[in-house]
Predict the 3D structure of the following.
Amino acid sequence: GENVEQHPSTLSVQEGDSAVIKCTYSDSASNYFPWYKQELGKGPQLIIDIRSNVGEKKDQRIAVTLNKTAKHFSLHITETQPEDSAVYFCAASLPRAGNKLTFGGGTRVLVKP
Amino acid sequence: SQTIHQWPATLVQPVGSPLSLECTVEGTSNPNLYWYRQAAGRGLQLLFYSVGIGQISSEVPQNLSASRPQDRQFILSSKKLLLSDSGFYLCAWSRAGPDYGYTFGSGTRLTVV
């Protein structure tokens, strides 16, 4: 099955700086890569996703890049703000029945004011 | 628009007692439904998923079971809870087919004492 590794597990940045979270996946057939943000005590929320036919996608201060050859994808947050503090999860899915997502282990991001 | 409801928000149950967590989705039909568990400070573990009424796939052998009696209703159950069943339980739905992100419910914090 698919395996997703996520790094780093914790990330502390100064407000205004950029944050980068990296994930690698094992199955080259994976074709959908969403990112989720989870605030304390809440369910994860989808913040951005990318499909395998696209190399980069941007939405305001967040962007995701995908390198299919190397089987890794990254989340970039620019001009970080305190409200960006949360746990972020990457995920990958294979084009099979059930649309099962395999999640990375999560990155706890702390933005210091 | 689609909404997902999950209840209760918190639950404290004694060891050996039964469990029933309910999740319902509104505003869509034939969704894929998922149950995840998240241990404190840990990642997301897929427990069960369902692509249709009465169709349940189990990802991890355990003390829990799931049922889907109606198209938009997903129930997580246990006959006898263990201490190790404590955690944050999340229900999620996605559109049928590949390449769709999940929408998570708000979660149930279960503490087994």
Chain A has a mean pLDDT of 93. The longest strand of chain A covers residues 86-93.
